[in-house]
Design brief:
Blueprint: E1 8-13, E2 16-21, H1 32-46, E3 53-58, H2 69-73, H3 83-92, E4 98-102, E5 105-107, H4 109-112, E6 119-123, E7 127-129, H5 143-151, H6 153-161, E8 166-167, H7 168-173, E9 179-181, H8 186-199, H9 202-235, H10 238-248
Parallel strand pairs: 2-3, 3-4, 4-6, 5-7, 6-9
Antiparallel strand pairs: 1-2, 7-8
Helix pairs in contact: 1-3, 5-6, 5-9
The structure holds coenzyme A.
The site of coenzyme A has 15 residues, from α2 and β5.
Length: 259
């Protein structure tokens, strides 16, 4: 299968579409072109009867370091028709199982997209983080809706307000991942599970996924939209400018002047 973007690789094997995020020099940070490519691949796979499952992973020891901060500073995430939003909706509404293999950093949307995958396998090198507040931003991709429901309010607050990093074992205990594995085994395990899913009755699989998600679907969607409205405004805030500039200048952010 041809990917529309060089930094997103796509291949089909055993009725599984493997999408690999491949921009190692930026720890697989996602640009608008990469979001568009992933949305296009998912939307194509949704209606392709040859594909029964999708595997998501990142190349070269990183899942993804999240949104490309330069892209954000440049103001390219504009509105609900933006590639970010298109990708979010394509994954959120994807009717077939999605299995993730996570190695290295899974930052921002690198963690929140796992809430919308069906199974995830984390390597013992995986580091999860949702540093939205650290960046002067706010939660996205319905993380403020799903995280308290998965792990309770106290833990969700800790992860979202403090932007705390956590590892594979904690991700399993919190209910975000299925298993913590040696780093070299994540993709193999994801492929095994995908192959198993691909042998199951496809309509029964799709129906089960739909039933598992049905009751939270409308509320999650409402939350995605509400968060996106705030998030887009935060991108032009001075707090975000300070945080992103500090990251680029490799210094801690200083929010002391803000009220
Ligand atoms: N956007 C743009 N560039 C990024 C990036 C991002 N999200 N994440 C990493 N990079 C760049 C770094 O600036 C660095 O560039 P340089 O080589 O020109 O200095 C390069 O990718 C390698 O990253 P580095 O920080 O040296 O790797 P690391 O292994 O020490 O740390 C991370 C990896 C992911 C933990 C760290 O880069 C990070 O925290 N990135 C920011 C994550 C983030 O805030 N994402 C947005 C969430 S909304």
């Amino acid at each position: 299968m041809q990917s529309p973007c060089a930094e997103i690789q796509a291949q089909v094997a055993d009725r599984a579409l493997e999408i690999t995020i491949n921009r190692p020099e930026r720890k697989n940070a996602l640009t608008m072109a990469m979001y568009s490519a992933m949305a296009e691949l998912l939307n194509g796979a949704a209606g392709d009867s040859q594909i029964r499952v999708v595997i998501l992973s990142g190349a070269d020891g990183a899942f993804t370091s999240g949104n490309d901060l330069m892209d954000f500073l440049g103001g390219s995430a504009t509105g609900e028709d933006s590639p970010v939003f298109q990708f979010m909706l394509a994954l959120y509404n994807f009717p077939k199982p999605v299995v993730a293999a996570v190695n290295g950093p899974a930052v921002g949307i690198g963690t929140t997209m796992l809430l919308h995958c069906d199974m995830a396998f984390a390597g013992d090198d995986a580091v999860f983080q949702m540093p939205f507040v650290n960046l002067g931003l706010c939660p996205e991709y319905a993380s403020s809706y799903f995280l308290p429901r998965i792990m309770g309010h106290a833990k969700a607050s800790e992860l979202l307000l403090l932007g705390k990093k956590f590892g594979a074992q904690e991700a399993v205990e919190l209910g975000i991942c299925n298993a913590a594995l040696p780093a070299a085994d994540t993709l193999t395990r994801a492929r095994e599970v995908a192959a198993e899913l691909a042998t199951r009755a496809p309509e029964a699989v799709r129906l089960t996924k739909q039933l598992l998600r049905k009751r939270s679907h409308a509320s999650g969607l409402e939350c995605i939209e509400e968060e996106a409205g705030h998030f887009l405004k935060r991108l032009s805030s001075e707090e975000f400018r300070e945080a992103a500039t500090a990251f680029m200048e490799k210094r801690p952010a200083d929010f002391s002047r803000f009220e």
